[in-house]
Amino acid sequence: MGGMYAMAMKDPPFWAQALKARREALGLSKGEKVTQEDIAARTGDLISQRTVSHLENGSVDLQGLAFGRVVALAKALNWTLPEFQRATGLPVEEEEVEPPESSAAEEPFQLPAGLQEAIEIYGQQHKNLRDPVWQRYLAGIRWRSGQPTEPDRWFDAYRDLVRNGIVPGED
């Protein structure tokens, strides 16, 4: 098997153990059991029960998940993206995008070209794309494979965040 599948390990990696521990802990306070099926349902079925199982045993690499699926998984586990990153070590947290104080007055914030294009294309129908808070949030996301250059990929990332209830500045 290739791609995001890895060989099953005797001891799952720490991030796999963190995912399982979090799922199990979610129901403890209420005396309930939160199943892998429950987590899959909470992701809006962006992630199947089988994938949740593979993630928890480490046979699917967490870093192989698309950004939208990572966002959905974090939300399903009642974690913010920064909490998810701290628990799993996966770099999904937004970066601080403020320029250094010395150059703040000299250089205005520059949006990546693809994001600017996405704002021009989709901004009329999706007003949040024209909001500077959203723009900085999107521009500050760390991408495993490098920032997108295509406006459609930026728009897909924005929609994934909105669909999963992410609001910039609410951690």
Can you give a write-up of this model?
- Pfam families: HTH_3.
- This is HTH cro/C1-type domain-containing protein.
- Keywords: Plasmid.
- Residues 18-84 form the HTH cro/C1-type domain.
- This protein is mainly α.
- It folds into two domains: 14-88, 434 Repressor (Amino-terminal Domain); 101-163, no CATH class.
- Helices cover 49% and strands 0% of the residues.
- It is built from nine helices and no strands.
- The chain has helices spanning 14-28, 36-42, 49-57, 67-76, 81-88, 101-104, 113-122, 132-139, 151-163.
- Helix 4 packs parallel to helix 9 (151-163).
- The longest helix is centred in the N-terminal third of the chain and has 15 residues, at 14-28.
- The radius of gyration is 18 Å and the shape is elongated.
- Residues 1-9 and 93-107 have low confidence and may be disordered.
Core attributes:
434 Repressor (Amino-terminal Domain), mainly alpha, elongated, disordered N terminus, 49% helix, 171 residues
**CATH class value of the largest domain:** Mainly Alpha
Q: How many angstroms does the end-to-end distance come to?
A: 37 Å
Total tally of structural domains: 2
Radius of gyration: 18 Å
Protein name: HTH cro/C1-type domain-containing protein
Pfam families: HTH_3
Keywords: Plasmid
Quick synopsis:
The protein is built from nine helices and no strands.
List the helices and strands and how they pair.
Blueprint: H1 14-28, H2 36-42, H3 49-57, H4 67-76, H5 81-88, H6 101-104, H7 113-122, H8 132-139, H9 151-163
Helix pairs in contact: 2-3, 2-4, 4-9, 7-9
